[in-house]
Amino acid sequence: MAERSFAKEVEKLRLGDGETFHGEGILAITKALLQCGVGYVGGYQGAPISHLMDVLADAQDILAELGVRYEANASESAAAAMLAASVHYPIRGAVAFKSTVGTNVASDALANLASGGVTGGALVIVGEDYGEGSSIMQERSHAFAMKSQIWLLDPRPNLPSIVKAVEDGFELSEATNTPVMLEVRIRACHLYGAFETKANRRPPLTVREAVDAPRRQTDRIVLPPAAFAHEQEKIAKRWPAAQAFIKEHGLNEFFGPQAGKVGIILQGGMYNSVVRALQRLGLADINGDTEVPLYVLNVTYPLIDDEIAAFCAGKDAVLVVEEGQPNYIEQAIGAMLHAGGAPTRVIGKTALPMAGEYTGQVMLDGVGRFLRENGPGMLAPEHRAPNRPREPQPAPELAEIVPQRPPGFCTGCPERPIFAAMKLVEQEHGKHQIAADIGCHLFSILPPFEIGGTTMGYGLGPASNAAFHGGGGKRPISIIGDGGFWHNGLSSSIGNAVYNEADGVILIVDNYYSAATGGQDVLSSRAENRSKSTNHPIADAVRGVGVKWVRQIDRTYDVGKMRDTLAEALTTPEKGPKVIVASSECMLNRQRREKPLMAKAVKDGKRVVKPRFGVDEDVCTGDHACMRLSGCPSLSVKTLDDPLRDDPVAAIDQTCVGCGNCGEVADAAVLCPSFYRADVIRNPTRLERAMTRLRQRATRALAGWRQRRRLTFAGDAAA
Amino acid sequence: MTIAIGPDAPPAIPIADPHIVKLAILAVGGQGGGVLSDWIVQAAEESGYAVQTTSVPGVAQRTGATIYSIEMTPRSDRLPVLALMPSPGDVDIVIAAELMEAGRAVMRGLVTPDRTTLIASTHRMLAVSEKIVAGNGIADGDTVLATVEEAAKRFIGFDMDKIAAEAGTMISASLYGALAGSGALPFERAAFEAAIRKGGRGVEASLRAFETAFERARNADATANAADDAPQAVAGMAAPSGPAHLLERWRDLCERIAAYPHAMRDMATRGLAKVVDFQDLAYGAAYLERLDVVLAVDKATGADGREWALSVTAAKHVANAMAYDDVIRVADRKTRADRFTRIRREVEAPADALVQVTEFMHPRGEEVCSMLPAGLGRFVEARPRLLAGLDRMVNRGRRVRTDSLIWFTVLFTLAGLRRWRRRLLRHAKETAHIDEWLTQALHMAPQNYALAVEIVACRRLIKGYSDTHQRGLSKFDRVLATVPLLAPRDDGGDWLRRLREAALKDEDGSALDGAIETVRSFAETGDTLAARVKAD
């Protein structure tokens, strides 16, 4: 079960001809796929594409009705490989993953696919995780398209354009026997907007029908001598065919006047930001009608030489708006114009920054600068020679005060106690070489835990410690999540550690889901999934590849046990990798699952126990040792209204889910007796009520007896 | 460059397109920013607007700072071109779901005095970096509040989190109410409310929070903002209750305080209450005797011109030192008559629910030993094997149900050891420590008054239990070890304060080590603090 349910939204996928769809970009893409008669879909989750996978999973009934096969692929590589179905069969297929990390993983299959070419339209939807909010290295997908010769679409970020790009993509793919990559940036994926729908189309040939009538063509298989022929074919046939198709169907767009001394060539995805800059410079109106000639590359690879030549003809200078680096498009256009002897100056990364996201301000500065230097006549005086300085920003003092707020473990996260335990092990056994992986557990790198030194890729945590696996005085530790484990970690990280007799400790964080990407199920998920096979324990898989020393921990909140198991793994004389599987359900998903059930149980009069933690503020001394082993959002500090106390004390707010970490840590680290757990029992049994009454009477009598013999100070002021 | 401005000079104040309303929401992952933006979209569509919204949730959904962008314009037959992210200087409405996020919005330039309405909840959700500081790491909210208020054209700020919590819903509802109440968007109230109803979940609670926040925002005028959220002035101590003979003796002690200089009376009264609560009235008298000594030294050093800093500081820290955190105090606090009522309130237990309370205790041999009579305790302590054996017997985590009769009685009995506390090892140690520390300070007062005050204030370093307590003691010792170096210096007090602040910064004391190193180096070279600070 994914973190976000699209069960209601997917009904929009049934909209027919001429109806209006309102919703998120990702859902619009799914609708577009169905309108195009797609035969199979797949992919691998990861922001910003996770919701696409969730939508597909929730839309399984609709997909089934249309005869569309949906596969939750093992990895991006597996997803790309699935497009093999379009090699020999005239079936449209689409897969989605985040880029560039996913494209990195997929590139083996993508290169093979692109070499042999496709018969049915093959669409690779990449969610470009670049700029603000990104969680990965900052690179471009563009290079992958260029190296394998896959056409790259980068549509204007509005729903009608994105939907049209899906349609164009399939047609372009089929017309040129080449897979097509559709790049959607992070904000476009989450964009809320509207478009006019068409009815869904059943694929003319379904995969079920195709499998009953197998086909093969030896010359489409990547093997010599066919592989050599493929390379020639890419240049001689597919490239020109693509250019012809793009031109003929007007995939790229022109806005503004035809003539002008200056113009802007931009990636489709940059369109709204460029228009906003022009709006602010007084050169465009609300609908994007502008006085500056714009050439919008909805296809950023290949470029169309004569379109570019025609656009630049008569212009003194063109600005190329291309986000990220290297500046492939700018270089290509420069070379093109130079070869053609055109005098137009190509300005790109000299007006705009070479690296980094093109935010609103960057775009305004860059476009403004380009126009001031090359077409000042177009600008109103206040923009041509601005003489008012920028508003003084009251930032200096704020910069020192306002704290950073990086992401971290959620309230009640089962991974928190794992890292609290690691911190305790560190206190006892000293620091260790620790390699991290990709997933929520990577938050351990940040305060308060500050554990883990590198992250080399999904499923590669233990593999990235291989150099240290020969052993030394202290054993290296590596961490891997269940998502990474099933992605490729079982073979690349665990299997190979067995093979190489690695003397390290491998900690597998099993939270029942691919949690960081939004709680999708994986093989080891404990939930029953109606269309997937789950409940395959990680520990079994690990033993299956030959690990002898395996410890399964079924409640990560047991910090003491966690600590002792880690210590044992670090010190046992046993040879080979020491694998600890630390399992507890992702709290975010657990709450989502249990909350409604609990509420219903309470309503139905059933006995329900809800734990909550609290702090006796008069026992807490304000040393904050517990915070340094927690970082839980619900565990905070508060300043007491007491001049005797300098330091704020610990406090737990109403968002506490009673996971137990506070108490466990206070106990395992021998911190303090300030925490208490209060089990709130709804609909208690009669016996319980009676017992409680008796107990209360007795304890109150005792407490009262003492109170009558001493001074009592109002409230806790005297604490 | 062809024109006479710097290469990076931005264009002037951008033309605000009057037809596009630009809105940004800054929230913390998990606050329901997505729900809020959905409601705004609904209300806008309902009111005949074309609206576009987007966000970069990604991994920031996990408790990180997140930003949502909404743009809208009256619907026409053409599709407007709207931006996908807010730009500095180009935002009409900023909604910040927490005070520091409002500060962040201002830092990012999204709030400008020429056009931005800033709607912010003034409550705090502390960042991890603020919580893990051993001392007080909470960021200065007042400065942020003042700055953001000044940065905005219009500022509407109050504790919207409280309003939401009281209504039993998320802050998104009260933020939405404040937005509607602010009148910054030209929509009818009914359109806003319809969006909540259409959402379908927790409608009643959301509407309640909406209503309250709506009214607050509607009646908000910039000067009154947030004033009523400010912490109320500390009220004077209320008189205690109890048996008449004890109250009489309490009043006697209070009369002694009445003779103290005005500056220290409040602190001394609070301190007195703390030690009496900790032990008894005789202990309170002992506290006042200590203060008398301090006061005498203070008077002798002509402290009236210094607002009795030594006495006031001593009134605070001697009380804290005398009411040390031992097992008896913890047991006493955990078995007070009003505790269960307080817990029920804290965990928001409904009236018909039962509440069971589990404590997390982890006694070690040391704690048990410290509860032995002083002589016996010293005997055990002097024999490491005996102490280790004792530790083996008791050292384990004990989770005890204090709502059960057995464990309540155990703790109650432990608390009853109070009667004999003065004879126990812990008390002997604490008393010796207090005497030594106070003597050191009082001896310093004639030579270096400021340093003496700071010596007293260093008591703040000792807190926590078991290992944390040990680390605190060790920091205290290390800081006070620099006193001989600082004694001859006019700026000695200042330096000791700096050392104390460094000690409170991190747990392992590396900041302290660095600071001590600095002190040693200049003490040798004879540098002045002023020169140092300049060099920094």
Characterization of the model:
The complex is a heterodimer of chains A (719) and B (536). Chain A has 719 residues and is of the alpha/beta class. Chain A folds into 4 domains: 9-248, Rossmann fold (3-Layer(aba) Sandwich), CATH 3.40.50.970; 253-384, 3-Layer(aba) Sandwich (Rossmann fold); 415-589, Rossmann fold, CATH 3.40.50; 605-707, Alpha-Beta Plaits (2-Layer Sandwich), CATH 3.30.70. Helices cover 37% and strands 16% of the residues of chain A. Chain A has a 7-stranded mixed sheet with strand order 3-2-4-5-7-6-12, sandwiched between helices. In chain A, helix 1 packs across helix 8. The longest helix of chain A is centred in the N-terminal third of the chain and has 23 residues, at 226-248. Chain A is globular, with a radius of gyration of 30 Å. The two termini of chain A are 47 Å apart. Chain B has 536 residues and is α/β, with parallel strands linked by helices. Chain B starts with 20 loop residues before the first strand and ends with a helix. Chain B has 3 domains: 21-229, Pyruvate-ferredoxin oxidoreductase, PFOR, domain III (Pyruvate-ferredoxin Oxidoreductase, domain 3), CATH 3.40.920; 244-325 and 427-535, no CATH class; 327-421, no CATH class. Chain B has a 6-stranded mixed sheet with strand order 2-3-1-4-5-6, with helices on both faces. A two-stranded antiparallel ribbon of chain B has the order 7-8. Chain B contains 25 helices and 8 strands. Residues 1-16 and 222-234 of chain B have low confidence and may be disordered. At the A-B interface, helix 9, helix 12, helix 15, helix 16 and helix 17 of A face strand 2, strand 3, helix 2, helix 3 and helix 4 of B. Strand 24 (675-682) of chain A pairs antiparallel with strand 7 of chain B.
